[in-house]
Amino acid sequence: RSSVHSASFQACRLQFMVDSANTTQISSSCIQLLSVLSAEPLHTASVLVIFNKRDLPCTMSLVEMMSLFRMDDIIASATQPITTVELSARSGQGLQEVLGWLDSTLTD
Fold it and tell me: Which sites bind GTP (predicted)?
C-alpha cells in the first residue's frame, strides 16, 4: 500500500468515501481523511466527502457522523474546499449532488 505523501501527482479533485454502515471504522476513516488532506500534492484539490450507504437501517444520522468526524473543524482548518454529501448507491439519493460537484469542479 503506497502512501499518499509519496505520490508524485497533482490532483484537482478528490472523492473520499465513508462507509456509513461500518460504525466500527469511523475513527479510522477520520484519521485517513486527515492524512489525505495533509498530503502536499492535495493541498489545493477540491474534496468531496461522501457518506455512503445512507439507506441502511444501521447507519448513524448524518449529524452524528459529521460530529464524530468533527467535519466543521476539518472544513474550517483545511486548505482545500470541502463538500459533504449523503449517498445511497442503491436508491440514488445524493447522486445528483455528486454529479453536480463533479461538473462544477471540472469547470473550475
Answer: 52-55
Q: What is the number of domains present in the chain?
A: 1
| Residue 57, Cβ density class (10 Å: 0-12 exposed, 13-18 middle, ≥19 buried) | exposed
Annotated ligand binding at 13? The verdict is: no
pLDDT at 41 over 60: yes
- Other C-beta atoms closer than 10 Å to the C-beta of 103 total 9
Please write the tens of the pLDDT for every residue from 55-66: 888 788 888 888
Distances (CA, A) of 84 to 21, 24, 25, 62: 17, 20, 18, 10
- C-alpha cell, 98: 455528486
| 108 in any annotated domain | no
pLDDT value of position 2: 41
CATH number of domain containing 51: 3.40.50.300
How far is 100 from 108, CA to CA, in rounded Å? 12
Instruction: Kindly state whether residue 33 falls inside one of the protein's structural domains.
Output: yes
